[in-house]
Design goal:
By secondary structure, this protein is an all-alpha fold. The chain has one domain (about 1-110). The chain is built from 4 helices and no strands. Helix 1 packs antiparallel against helix 2 and helix 2 runs antiparallel to helix 3. The relative contact order is 0.08.
């Protein structure tokens, strides 16, 4: 029972932490403006905060994959990572954001040329 309560408490902290990062990222995205000077200190700060949130989301996805298993799981009454639709959407969004952050180093055209 203590182990379950410890797990439940850790899960609640994990959930609230990443919900806070999602809200922070939404505010950051609202502050991003393409017409701002890219060399301005505020624009650079917003860009670095966006990168920090993205790295946090990548860590979240990897932790979920480790905890739940990618295709199957050994934990009773728990679905694997890809068997939950919202996790699949998270994985696709992370791939798109990584592609966007690399500023063209990895372009979508390179995937089609294979």
């Amino acid at each position: 029972m203590q182990r379950y309560l410890r797990y439940k408490k850790l899960y609640t902290v994990f959930r609230f932490l990443f919900t806070g990062f999602i809200v922070a990222n939404l505010i950051i995205l609202l502050l991003l403006n393409p017409s701002n000077d890219p060399e301005q200190a505020t624009t650079l700060l917003i860009k670095w905060l966006d990168i920090t949130c993205t790295i946090t989301f990548i860590i979240e996805v990897f932790l979920k994959i480790i905890a739940l298993g990618f295709f199957n799981t050994s934990i009773r009454r728990t679905k694997a990572f890809l068997s939950q639709f919202i996790n699949f959407v998270d994985l696709i969004l992370i791939m798109v954001v990584i592609t966007d952050l690399t500023d063209g180093l990895i372009s979508v055209r390179s995937f089609f040329s294979l």
